[in-house]
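User: Predict the full complex structure for these chains.
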Amino acid sequence: MKKEIHIAQVIVNNNSLQTDKIFDYKIPEGLQNTLQRGMRVIVPFGMGNKKLEAYIMNIKREEKIEYKLKELLYPIDDEPIINEKQIRLIVWLKNKYMCKYIEAIQCVLPTGIVNKEKKTICLLEEDWATKCYKNSKNQVELLKLLEDLGGKATLEKLYSRLSTNNINNTLKLLEEKEFIKIDYEISSRVKIQTQQYVQLTIEKKEIETIINTLKNAKRQREILLFLKEHRECPVKELLDLLKANRASLNALVSKGYVTISEREYKRDPFKNLEFKNFPKLNPNIEQKEIIDEIKPYIHKEEPKTFLLHGVTGSGKTEIYLQLIEEVLNKGKQGIVLVPEIALTPQTIERFYGRFGEGIAVLHSNLSEGERFDEWRRIVEGKVNIVVGARSAIFAPFNKLGMIIIDEEHESTYKSDHHPKYHAAEVAAFRSREEGAIVVLGSATPSLETYYRGEKGEVLLHTLAKRATASTLPEVEVIDMRQELDHGNTEILSEKLFSLIKENLDRKKQIILFLNRRGYATFVSCKQCGYVVKCTHCDITMTYHKNMKNLQCHYCGEKREEPKLCPSCGGTHIRYNGMGTQKIEKIIEGYFPNAVIGRMDMDSTSVKGSHQRILESFKNGEIDILVGTQMISKGLDFPNVTLVGVISADASLNLPDFRASEKTFQLVTQVAGRAGRGSEKGKVVIQTYNPQHYSILAASQHDYDSFYKEELPIRKEYFYPPFVQLININFIGKKEEEVYTVSKKIANNIKYILKSKGYNKYDEIVFGPNPTIIAKVNEKYRYQLLLKDIDVPYRFLKSILKYLLMENRQKFVPASISLSIDIDPLYTMGI
DNA sequence: AGCACGCCGACT
DNA sequence: GTCGGCGTGCTC
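Assistant: Here is the predicted structure of the three-chain assembly.
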């Protein structure tokens, strides 16, 4: 038998497009029997033979090789950390989302497992001072520094102590003279997270007297008072919460009233949960029918997707639980995805309450160590159910039987960094590969999913009744145009104002909702409600204040700022741009005695502040809660009897094809927050578009009629589910360059399409246009939007692969970075 | 991404 | 001979 050469085909852990390919390494004789696919090894890479971590994707044997091959060095793992299914998943992710191998690998592995190399420099020549040229200033400086650092230092360390940013030449010269030696070391990135805590060192009784001594130190008094209540608190949270300065705290430390200690920071995901037993319920007829219909598919082990379409409270969770039970009985495993772990402790509580042990939780709030621990438990087979957010879809189960995606329509299931995967897409892939079923649940399914349901690709089940007795709230749509006619130019309609007053008087709680995120402003007429739209795109035009014009961000059409309403000739042109902060101020003015809380991205940036606001709302400390879409999800407060949607138009008029769908979902979800207790709730929706189908349908809790209105529009204007979209962002510091490069790419794509006989290239390629926030962090962004109109989707993608992946250096300068979004949820960043 | 290599201009 | 800057091209 001929002697064969064993070759490992690896992906190196180097986050660069140019190294994003398979590299072949010879396997040393001693390792030929131990190395397997999915193991990590250290390879010598590049001219300097820098040691890099690499992942074995494949092992092959060849009799001879006609190209140069290096030998890999040594393995990191003694068994594969990536299994065969995951390798297939990695390849699929790369092809589907056009990402790098390493990015796909990072999806499948918990963060922190990936090691990083370090370059260390050792001093060899102790007598360097006499042997060195007098005038080589840099060399002397470096050697001196190295000596000061004990003759050994990492490259990072050297740079941190030097002012220059390039010592490579100097190092090279010194290495040639054998004054120094350069080593590469791999260091594992295991770090214990610590957090600073403040603690009181004095008795509570003493506080009052001490406070009197702090006459001029308002913040210090506040801190002490806060600590009197809470005893201890993480430093960062305390300062953020009280808007206090570190100096105030330091003053207290130096006076000896408080101490600060460093503690290992490990968040216990179950800290605040009560694990009451959650007994199995008898399903009602509706639930039973659905369970009985899905169960056989669990046993058939064939890929199948189901959609449970039912309002909140219609008993979806019980169906999930009973299906999971069936999966467990069969010896299989299940993944349960929820849109945001922070908002859905109930879900976890229920799964724990029903199944007890054998549950893991995966989400981004876990510390690296914790995440790693949970991941290990799954790999070791100690866990049968994983509950988690988006990334939990990659749970390394071996006997996957079912994937549940609750609130399927939520945009949190779409990843916002590369690869920009959608959890439901990954679920579908795993379902096909591993013979698992997928169960999607939503009261307001995404249009795409419902469409697939109609076509039979997804098995659709509707839960019409509410499982509990509470009834859906009464919804009233207020026409803000009429308010104007009556002379009310305020932000609140008379109706909503009087209802707030009445509910406050009755000591009931109120939620006011305004979805204002992003910077999109639109232009409308106060008298007739007309909104300026692009003639080609059915998309609202965006007001650019600096240029004083209107632009369509889809096709780039520009228009003069209108002086008069193009529809009715009125003079009350409105530049819309109301946000939650402004609302808060206004409401404060109206109701000075009410306690108002605000919940949006700004007020919840601190960890835990989310819960804190909700907690005080729950305890009745807040009368009116003002918030963005954050308050639309899953909150259950029985004392809330009034929900006001300040302006349903904010999301309706966003320049995005999904604006109507988003509005429908939001209004429906928000409306569901009212009347969850014994008293029937009331919902008021303020709008300038009272006749708009998404608002009408939402006010009647009527998904079907929304769907029937929206679908033809998607068809007519070529949007999903009728076409597939690809969104490419070009990002760079010089606007001119970003534009010309993206323009060049657009022309290249069109040229290739044209040459292959696809003549709708002008409809396939949109742009380049500036993105809705055209400048972020001093960088300009332009986007290209592609639609697969009369062209095979695969071909369109192969063009992009050619231009932007395989030959990117030729077409895109290094100064411009790219972001490719396959099947973007939003094209305009809602 | 690193890193080397080549080329240039400047300073000593 | 030394030093720093910058563009280009390669990594099995």
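Chain A has a mean pLDDT of 82.
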